[in-house]
């Protein structure tokens, strides 16, 4: 009798524990959302979107990325793997591959082909739009660990951008969907052989052209003719309007409904990456009325998703987190109006000047074409030296040539500091700026010299308007983070939190292993 009582007690505890596990985890990433947008746009938000998450969830107000560069690919990979580019390998959106001596794309995979609602004769079947997979990402994601723990869990990622869907969902996802250049939803043969019937039916009824009608306007500030944009650019232009977030939110609702996420005994996972905020932010900048209106409309779309989840699944059964993959810098010309140091620089000019310096330093004739062979590539503020050429022609250790380059580049007005690959590999840094550089450095993939640009400086390609991101400064690293639903208490904190802490936090809530390269820690305010 005593043994029976003990058994029943243990059973009841296990049943209670399993009952607290969420039926669904939803990870929402807003592409290019600075932290200060929460306060700036708060008065424009309704009560069922951002405000519902923040007022009823746990708001971590001091959340940062701890590496460079802060781009979309590394950002999504870091959120969902719980580590940094030094481990997961996504060191940029595109990077120079030292082995094949070509640029590669973070989600590109030439062995795959496009899966779309189209015939074999359509150009897009053979295009690069669907030649994608997560194979460049070297570690597992939350979704991967979920399916290792329980293969019956469904894991799906969606975004306007392929990298936003793929790097969030991971290697073993059931599906990832993104938008091609024509405005159609597609996937890759990495995930499936054909699109599900429900998606084809949904797309036939809800094409991008049906959204792009009338004008996008805000008060008396601007008015963009959507019909003209569609006619000139095709359906893919929806990505650069707030309607890109609308069409993605509508897809999210269809995924939840048709895949029956959160309706089974196991936990499902859905990542939603809103990308229009990034397209619009790059084009118009963070001080534009276009970005104000975009966030007002995004608030409505998030509210729409929350309403569905509340009615069909229930917030007690769901854990939702919302964050961003990076922030954005104010346009230099805007900063200069306020006498704030800033400016524009040219990668090509820096490369040419460095090439000339190396030629002169090693006494190569001016007209010797081989002088150009010193540098194979200059991208993502990294110098890739031609090791083969240097070993054959220059009797100087590579680390010394790296240092020569670093010292020369430091003289440029736009450069704050420089770091060598030798330095990153042979020394370990913890809390300095050096540490941020090191966490973004992958010995097999990164360059010989890393250039750290001064605050407020960006590429000359934006000199006529628009802006970008990628730095280690607060405007790029500081992003919102809120957890909501399930047993998560209401509250907020100004305590420093690292973006890589999200994945181990979700893993702890689910009782599964951390992603295999995870270097973050569970956020105690969420897990305790």
Average predicted confidence as pLDDT:
93
Proper CATH architecture of the largest domain? 3-Layer(aba) Sandwich
Oligomeric composition of the shown chains: single chain
- CATH overall fold name of the largest domain: Alkaline Phosphatase, subunit A
The total strand number stands at 21
Q: Which CATH top level class of the largest domain fits?
A: Alpha Beta
Calculate Rg over CA atoms. Answer: 24 Å
What general outline do the C-alpha atoms trace?
globular
- First-residue to last-residue Cα separation: 35 Å
Q: How is this fold's topology laid out?
A:
Blueprint: H1 2-20, E1 24-30, H2 37-40, H3 50-56, E2 58-64, H4 72-81, H5 85-88, E3 94-97, E4 102-105, E5 114-115, H6 142-149, E6 155-159, H7 162-169, E7 175-179, E8 185-188, H8 197-205, H9 208-211, E9 215-218, E10 222-225, H10 226-233, H11 243-258, E11 268-274, H12 276-284, H13 289-312, E12 318-324, H14 332-337, E13 343-345, H15 347-361, E14 375-379, E15 382-385, H16 387-393, H17 398-409, E16 415-420, H18 421-426, H19 433-439, E17 449-453, E18 457-459, H20 474-477, E19 478-479, E20 482-485, E21 491-498, H21 502-510, H22 524-527
Parallel strand pairs: 1-11, 1-12, 2-21, 6-7, 6-11, 13-18
Antiparallel strand pairs: 2-19, 2-20, 3-4, 5-8, 7-8, 9-10, 12-20, 14-15, 15-17, 16-17
Q: If you had to describe this structure to a student in words, what would you say it looks like?
A:
The chain is α/β, with parallel strands linked by helices and 528 residues long. It folds into 2 domains: 369 residues, Alkaline Phosphatase, subunit A (3-Layer(aba) Sandwich); 112 residues, Gyrase A, domain 2, CATH 3.30.1360. 38% of the residues lie in helices and 19% in strands. The protein is built from 22 helices and 21 strands. The strands form 5 sheets. Strands 1, 2, 5, 6, 7, 8, 11, 12, 19, 20 and 21 form an 11-stranded mixed β-sheet that branches. Strands 14-15-17-16 form a 4-stranded antiparallel β-sheet. The longest helix has 24 residues.
């Amino acid at each position: 009798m005593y043994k029976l009582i003990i058994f029943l007690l243990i059973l009841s505890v296990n049943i209670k524990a399993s009952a607290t596990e969420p039926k669904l985890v939803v990870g929402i990433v807003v592409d290019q959302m600075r932290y200060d947008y929460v306060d700036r746009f708060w008065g424009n938000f309704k009560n069922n979107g951002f405000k519902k998450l923040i007022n009823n969830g746990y708001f971590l107000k001091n959340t940062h990325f701890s590496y460079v560069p802060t781009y979309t690919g590394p950002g999504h990979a870091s959120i969902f793997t719980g580590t940094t580019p030094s481990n997961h390998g996504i060191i940029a959106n595109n990077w120079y591959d030292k082995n094949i001596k070509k640029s590669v794309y973070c989600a590109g995979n030439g062995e795959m082909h496009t899966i779309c609602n189209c015939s074999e004769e359509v150009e897009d079947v053979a295009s690069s739009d669907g030649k994608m997979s997560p194979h460049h990402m070297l570690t597992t994601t939350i979704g991967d660990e979920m399916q290792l723990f329980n293969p019956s869990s469904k894991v799906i990622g969606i975004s306007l951008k392929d990298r936003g869907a793929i790097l969030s969902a991971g290697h073993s996802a059931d599906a990832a969907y993104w938008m091609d250049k024509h405005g159609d939803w597609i996937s890759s043969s990495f995930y499936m052989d054909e699109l599900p019937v429900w998606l084809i039916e949904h797309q036939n009824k809800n094409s991008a052209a049906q959204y792009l009608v009338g004008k996008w306007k805000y008060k008396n500030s601007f008015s963009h003719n959507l019909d003209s944009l569609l006619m000139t650019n095709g359906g893919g232009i929806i990505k650069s309007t707030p309607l890109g977030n609308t069409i993605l939110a509508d897809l999210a609702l269809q995924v939840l409904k048709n895949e029956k996420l959160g309706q089974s005994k196991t936990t499902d996972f859905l990542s939603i990456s809103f990308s229009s905020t990034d397209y619009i932010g790059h084009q118009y900048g963070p001080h534009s009325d276009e970005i104000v209106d975009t966030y007002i409309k995004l608030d409505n779309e998030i509210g729409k998703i929350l309403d569905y989840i509340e009615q069909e699944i229930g917030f007690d059964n769901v854990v939702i987190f919302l964050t961003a993959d990076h922030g954005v810098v104010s346009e230099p010309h805007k900063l200069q109006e306020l006498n704030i140091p800033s400016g524009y620089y040219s990668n090509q000019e820096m490369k040419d000047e460095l090439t000339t310096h190396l030629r002169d330093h090693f006494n190569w004739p001016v007209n010797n074409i081989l002088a150009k062979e010193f540098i194979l590539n200059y991208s993502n503020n990294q110098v890739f030296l031609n090791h083969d050429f240097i070993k054959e022609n220059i009797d100087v250790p590579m680390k010394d040539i790296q240092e020569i380059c670093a010292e020369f580049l430091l003289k440029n007005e736009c450069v704050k500091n420089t770091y060598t690959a030798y330095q990153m590999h042979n020394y370990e840094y913890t809390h300095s700026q050096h540490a941020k550089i090191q966490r973004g450095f992958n010995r097999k993939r990164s360059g010989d010299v890393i250039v750290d640009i001064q605050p407020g400086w960006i590429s000359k390609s934006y000199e006529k308007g628009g802006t970008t991101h990628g730095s280690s400064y607060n405007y790029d690293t500081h992003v919102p983070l809120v957890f909501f639903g399930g047993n998560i208490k209401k509250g907020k904190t100004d305590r420093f939190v690292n973006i890589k802490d999200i994945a181990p936090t979700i893993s702890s809530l689910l009782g599964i292993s951390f992603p295999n390269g995870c270097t973050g820690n569970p956020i105690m305010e969420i897990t305790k």
